[in-house]
Amino acid sequence: NPEKSSFQISFKYRPFNPEGSWSVEHPWLQRVYMAYSQTTFYDLKEASTPFEDTSYKPEIFFITSNLDARPDWMQGLFVQTGWQHESNGRGGEMSRSTNFLYARPMAIFYNEASRLGLMLGGRAWLYVNNSRDHNPDLHRYRGYFELEAKVGKADFIVAGACMRWASRGASVQIDATYPLHRLVSGNLDLYFQVQYVNALAENLLDYRSRTEALRLGLALVR
User: Are strands 32-42 and 191-200 parallel, antiparallel or unpaired?
Assistant: First the structure.
């Protein structure tokens, strides 16, 4: 769907030096990260004003080390907790903003013989200082929790799904990526990506609308 295209850039940074005196004295500081994501939604069919909305999402979070409480048949168990701000950087009636406090448990399963991996997780959140003037009922479209799953091989296809529920309806996003270096003799470090989305509140500006789109593109990481 060219008229429902999107572009996203994300990064994370560990602010505390793991070899510094603070981290040595307080090892939990090594698990603190700062992150930023920016997602732009645009219409490739429009020649002059293709950009429709952008979401800016700075974040700070803590992720545990691999928890010892996991059962023997589970290779990894982590819990991520954090705070995230989201806004579209606009003013007036087009302004949208909210904040989230969230918790995200993740379970990892891996078979060495087949090299097949599986991640199962979920995320629950609370809205903090959600804009009462411009998006007071965002929770009716975004809800309070989501479930996610990802399965595949590191050097082959990896597919994932994320499902969210809210009082106004359910939302789903499905992604599949394939390493392009397998097609060009190891010379291209990119991934071909297929994405299907059928979701409410994909962007903040039109959060009461449902987006349904099939997208093809490239990914730097997965």
Answer: unpaired
27 is written with which tokens? Answer: 């090892």
Q: In what order do the strands lie in the sheet with 191-200?
A: 5-13, 32-42, 51-63, 76-87, 97-111, 116-127, 145-152, 158-166, 169-179, 191-200, 210-219
d(CA 59, CA 84) in angstroms, rounded, equals 4
Q: Are 157 and 173 in contact (CB under 8 A)?
A: no
- Answer yes or no: pTM beyond 0.85: yes
pLDDT in tens, 26-47: 999 999 999 999 999 988 777 6
Could you give the CA distance from residue 95 to residue 91 in angstroms, rounded to a whole number?
5
- Of 132, 144, 64, 136, the C-alpha closest to 102 is 144
Sign of the Cα pseudo-torsion (146, 151, 154, 159, in order): negative
The pairing of strands 191-200 and 97-111 is unpaired
Please spell the DSSP secondary structure of 120-189, one letter per residue.
EEEEEEEE-S--TTT-TTTHHHH-SEEEEEEEE-TTS-EEEEEEEEETTEEEEEEEEEEEGGGTTTT---
Collapsing DSSP to helix, strand or coil, 101 comes out as strand
Distance of CA 146 to the CA centre of its chain: 11
Q: What does each C-alpha distance from 168 to 19, 89, 206, 210 come to in angstroms?
A: 48, 26, 14, 10
Amino acid at residue number 130: N
